[in-house]
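I am sending you the entry underneath: sequence plus fold tokens. Let me know what the token row says about the fold:
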Amino acid sequence: MRLALLLLLAASTAAQAGDDAISPDRPDFTNGPDVMAAGRFQLETSGAWQRDGSSRLRSTPTLLRLGLGHDLELRLDSDGALHQRNPDASGRGDLGLGFKWQLQDGDEGKPGLGVLVDVKTPTGSGVFKGHGLRPSLSFLAQWELPAGFSLGTMAGVLTDRNDADQRYTAAVLSASLGIPLGEKLHGFAEIAGQQLASARNGGNVVTAGTGVAWQMTNDVQLDTAVFRGLNHNTPDWAWTVGLSLRF
């Protein structure tokens, strides 16, 4: 908590060039096409809680983004520290390494476009460690709509391993509607197919979510969101509270 407050104070008081507002990829599932400017660094971290029947899961998802120039950013992400109840387990999540490439800036006449490539690595611990490298590829688009609304979409493919340790390919498809709630406050409503796969490969994982984000300064955002699982393969409920800081 003290570290988070120190980071918040540092980001709030630091002099930054330009008037562009912070644009995190959280709290919804759908990633936007915007990338970090060259030399800029962004931390997006959170606490997350998940409930599925009598089972509970607590995690600390964190994403680090570094602008590399030429509309390209480097990304490191992890679910962080995890603690599960019923069955009981604790450990850390796998590390993901990725790149996002912004293909086109968006405006009122054309959508912003981007590509996201990510690879999950088997670097976690205990039951949270995955099997082998699991790459994914997603195409990102965002439209600016009248009255301050926006629409973001993400479509892609991922590879993973099932309970029999056999590799499979699944689809990803989501859409998120950005909703203006004030000068510094905005919300979203989302439907997300986080995994679209056959039953033997874990089946479809589909959520509906909503939340709000408050832009405290051009470089600091607080957010919260709640998600409801829409089928039996998906956890019943998930909730997150997050902080994003740009340096």
